[in-house]
Amino acid sequence: MASHRRAKQPGRARVTVLTSAAAAAVALSAQAANAAPSEKPSKNEVKSRVDKLYEEAEQATEKLNGAKEKQEKLQKQISALQDSVARGQDELNELRDGIGSMATAQYRSGGIDPSLQLFLSSDPDSYLDKAATLDQLSSQQVETLKKIQAKQRELAQERAEATGKLKDLAATRTELGKKKKEVQAKLAEAQKLLNSLTAAEKAALTAEQDRASRSSSERVDLGDDTSATGRAAAAFAAAKTRLGTPYVYGATGPSSFDCSGLTSWAYAQAGVSIPRTSESQSTIGTKIYSTSDLQVGDLVFFFNDLHHVGLYAGNGQILHAPRTGTVVRYESMSTIGGPFMFGVRV
C-alpha cells in the first residue's frame, strides 16, 4: 500500500528569508518604476539647465575674447620690437664699420692707435671704462664709441623685452586654447540636453524662443528714444540694422555677433573704436548707476563680473545679442537674468 505522507512544510526561518527577499524585490521594482520617469528631465528643467550653460558659455566667451585681444596686442608689440632690433643692429653694424675704417686708415698710415686696438680686441660694452688712453682719440671717434655702447645696451634691453613678451604670448595661447575648449564643452553639453527632448518639446521651446526674439520688422515700444545724440545715436542706428542676426560666440559681425562683438561693431560704424570685451568696455567712459539717467546708445552692463553688455534702447529696453540660440533683439532689462550693474556713456 502506498504511503501518503504529508509534504514537508518549509521551516519558519526559510519562510522569513523568502518573504524578506520577495519584499525586497517588490520594493526595488517599485523604486525602479518610480525612478524611471525622473531619469529624463522635464522640458522646463532642460531649459533651465541649458540657459545656465549658455550663461556660463558667455562668461567663458568673454574670457576667450580677452585672451584673443591680448594675443593680438602682444603679436603687434613683438613685431614692433623685432623691427626695432633689426634696425638697431643695422645702425650698430654701420658704427662698427666706421670704427673699422678708422683702424684701417691708421694701419695704412703706420699703425693702429692703441685705443682703437683695445676696442677692437675687447668687449665694446666695457671699453669706455677700460680705455686709459681715451684722450688719444679724436672727439669723433669718442662719440662713435659712445654711440656703439649705447646702441648695444638698447638692443640688449629690446631683445630681453621681446623674449619676455614671447613667453607671455605662449602662455596667452595656452589660455586661449583652454577657454575655447571650455566654451565648446558648455555648448556641447547644452546641445546634448536639447537632443534629449521629444520633437513636441523641442517645438514648444522653439516657439517660446521665437516669441522672445523680435525680428527687425516688429515694432517695440521704446518710449522716447530721442535722447540718443551724436555718435551714440549713430551706434544705436547701426545696431538696429542687425536685428535678427544670430548670436555666435567670438563673432564681431556683420553677419553674427556675441554681446561685446555687437557693441564694438556698432560703435565702430559710428567712427568710435572701443575695446573688444565687455569688461574692457566698462572702463572707457562715464559710469551711470541710475537707469533713469541712461540715454539711448549708452552701454549697459549686467552680472557681477560684467560678462554681458548691450546698448540702451529707451523705456527700460536694451538692444543686444543675448546668447547662443538667440538673435540680436530688444529685451527688457528686467529679463536679462542678471543684475544691472551700471551704464557707460562713451
How would you sum up this structure, described in words?
With 346 residues, the chain is of the alpha+beta class. Helix content is 59%, strand content 8%. It contains 9 helices and 6 strands; from the N terminus they run αααααααααββββββ. A 6-stranded antiparallel sheet has the order 1-6-2-3-4-5. α7 crosses α8. The longest helix is centred in the first third of the chain and has 66 residues. The protein is elongated. It starts with 11 loop residues before the first helix and ends with a strand.
Brief rundown of the structure:
The protein has 346 residues and is an alpha+beta fold. The protein is 59% helix and 8% strand.
What is the overall shape? elongated
DSSP E strands, number: 6
Number of helices: 9
Largest sheet: 6 strands, antiparallel
Percent of residues in helices comes to 55-70%
List SSEs in N-to-C order: HHHHHHHHHEEEEEE
User: What's the pLDDT, averaged over the residues?
Assistant: 78
Terminal CA distance reads: 114 Å
Provide the structure class. Answer: alpha+beta
| Rg from Cα | 37 Å
The largest beta-sheet arranges its strands as 1-6-2-3-4-5
Stretches where pLDDT is under 50 for at least 5 consecutive residues are: 12-38
